[in-house]
Task: inverse folding
């Protein structure tokens, strides 16, 4: 399967390929899962993927705030916040991941919208997103909430080295936790009459913002940057595939009979009669659990602006087209660079896409945006 979907590097950024050699870390260093988390995740997955089921979950969580006096001003209120991740009621989260931490900065006068900023790979704490996005958006009366990923910053397990996720299940838990935590924060934005929520992020953050949008029951501006339709080919074909600890995954394959409880995985496992490579299994696990077509469609795809790096070597696009097949009606913005150049050089492009998408919401839903 992987050979059939092999990703060509002929037309991708040379800088992306060079940057690969500057990173020596490995991911999934301890294998597939810590305990039963992989099986428990797949038992929960149908509830996350179907919005009507997700909305039945009890996700209320009291939020504790503390002032960020250094960032506040006569025109803005800036706060640190935390609350227990709702996912902790469903899965056995590591202690450090159980609390969601975030930083918020809200205009004191009319706040048009509050943008939730999701972290890209390796983006620990708040500083980069605060300086690059939250502060400039304040000039347009748009607030921000910068979310700390599980397994990052204050939420990084003591046994984890930097951004090097220990298990495949950590990646899946990260995304699912953020879907639930974003739901808590978007409800908070509406309850406090801060305008309407919006979602954005770069790379991994672009993808997790997309996941969160699929679970929201209302139209929501969504600006995923340098991400695409699925994580399956990212970790098995793109540059990140060279960082996967394949020997460890091959050495310790998970319990296939337990995973076959998931109908989509069962079809694959039955077809190979229990003999499957680690590469194919990882691809299929991520395809089933992360492909956005397996989640509820956006309420209004016209509010999605997808920023794509044309020479991206990290995010292969040899899959269903996000803006045509999965979210028809979404806007696609192309930048003629690779992944890392996009991150370093196109902050203004991302900001422009955020502002234009917020304005599109205000134009399409003028009554709601003024409430």
Result:
């Amino acid at each position: 399967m992987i050979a059939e979907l092999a990703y060509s590097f002929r037309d991708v950024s040379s800088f992306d390929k060079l940057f690969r050699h500057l990173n020596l870390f490995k991911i999934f260093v301890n294998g597939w899962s810590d305990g039963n988390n992989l099986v428990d995740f797949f038992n929960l997955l149908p509830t996350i993927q179907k919005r009507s089921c997700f909305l039945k979950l009890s996700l209320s969580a009291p939020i504790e705030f503390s002032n960020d006096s250094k960032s506040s001003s006569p025109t803005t209120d800036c706060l640190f916040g935390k609350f227990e991740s709702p996912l902790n009621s469903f899965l056995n989260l590591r202690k450090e991941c159980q609390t969601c931490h975030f930083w918020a900065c809200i205009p004191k006068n009319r706040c048009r919208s509050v943008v939730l900023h999701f972290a890209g790979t390796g983006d620990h704490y708040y500083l980069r997103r605060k300086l690059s996005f939250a502060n400039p958006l304040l000039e347009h009366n748009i607030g921000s909430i910068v979310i700390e990923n599980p397994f990052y910053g204050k939420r990084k397990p003591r046994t984890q080295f930097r951004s090097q996720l220990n298990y495949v299940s950590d990646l899946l838990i990260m995304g699912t936790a953020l879907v639930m935590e974003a739901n808590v924060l978007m409800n908070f934005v509406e309850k406090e009459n801060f305008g309407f929520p919006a979602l954005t992020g770069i790379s991994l953050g672009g993808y997790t913002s997309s996941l969160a949008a699929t679970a929201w029951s209302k139209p929501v501006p969504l600006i995923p940057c340098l991400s695409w339709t699925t994580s399956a080919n990212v970790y098995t074909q793109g540059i990140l595939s060279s960082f996967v600890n394949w020997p460890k995954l091959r050495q310790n394959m998970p319990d296939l009979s337990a995973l076959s409880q998931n109908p989509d995985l069962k079809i694959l496992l039955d077809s190979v009669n229990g003999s499957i490579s680690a590469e194919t299994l990882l691809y299929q696990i991520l395809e089933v659990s992360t492909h956005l077509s397996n989640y509820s469609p956006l309420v209004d795809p016209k509010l999605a602006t997808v920023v794509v790096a044309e020479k991206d070597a990290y995010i292969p696009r040899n899959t269903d087209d996000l803006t045509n097949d999965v979210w028809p009606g979404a806007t696609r913005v192309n930048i003629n660079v690779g992944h890392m150049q996009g991150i370093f050089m196109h902050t203004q492009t991302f900001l422009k896409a955020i502002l234009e998408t917020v304005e599109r919401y205000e134009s399409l839903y003028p009554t709601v945006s003024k409430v």
Remarks:
- Residues 1-9 have pLDDT under 50 and may be disordered.
- DSSP finds 15 helices and nine strands in the chain.
